[in-house]
Amino acid sequence: MTTVAGLVLAAGGGRRYGMPKALVEHGGSLLVERAVRTARAACDPVLVVLGARAVDVWRTADLTGATVLANRDWETGMASSLRTGLDGLRGWPGAVDAALVTLVDMPGMTPEALRAVAAHAAPDALAVATYDGVRGHPVLLGREHWAGVAATATGDEGARRYLAAHAVTEVDCTGLADPVDLDVPPGGVASAP
C-alpha cells in the first residue's frame, strides 16, 4: 500500500495579510486548523511546518493528529518550509512514498481534491492539481524527487522550478476545491506590521 504524507506549509509571516496566516480565523477556526483537518481526512501522516510566531500557533491552534515541524529560516520564503517538511519526512519512521503539499492560506481546499491528486502517488510520481487548466495545489512529490526539489527550491518558488523541468501529471480538480488563496484580509489591503 502506498503511504502519502500530507505536508501543510504554514510558516509564513503573512506580510501582505498583516499577520501570520496560520493565526487567521476563517469560518470559525484558524486557517492552520482547517488545513490540518483537511489533510488528515486524506493523508496519514500529516506534518505541518510552522515558522512566524510558531509558539503562538502551537499554543493556540488545535493541531491534533499532526506532527509540528519548526522552520527557523521561514523569513527566507516558502522554499525553506518545503525543505523543512521534506527533511522531516526523510526521517519518518516507516516508509513514506510521496508528500502531498498544501498551503495554509487556501481555506477552500477539500479532502476530495487532496484524494484526487494522492491517487497518483508513487515514489517516482509528480502530480499537480489544475483548476480550469491552471496549475495550483495540492502538489504531489514522490520520494525519489525530494532531493531534487529541495536542491532547486528558492525563495517563495517552492517546487515550481523542479516541476517545470520534469514530466508532471496534471489532475483536473475543477469543482472539487476552491483554489483561491487569501493574500489580503477581506475588504482591504493590509500593510506589514
UniProtKB/TrEMBL annotation:
Keywords: Nucleotidyltransferase, Transferase. The keyword Transferase applies. SUPFAM superfamilies: Nucleotide-diphospho-sugar transferases (SSF53448). InterPro entries: MobA-like_NTP_Trfase, Nucleotide-diphossugar_trans. The keyword Nucleotidyltransferase applies. It comes from the Bacteria. GO terms for molecular function: nucleotidyltransferase activity. Residues 6-166 form the MobA-like NTP transferase domain. Gene3D superfamilies: Spore Coat Polysaccharide Biosynthesis Protein SpsA, Chain A. This is Molybdenum cofactor cytidylyltransferase. It comes from Geodermatophilus dictyosporus. The lineage of its organism: Bacteria, Bacillati, Actinomycetota, Actinomycetes, Geodermatophilales.
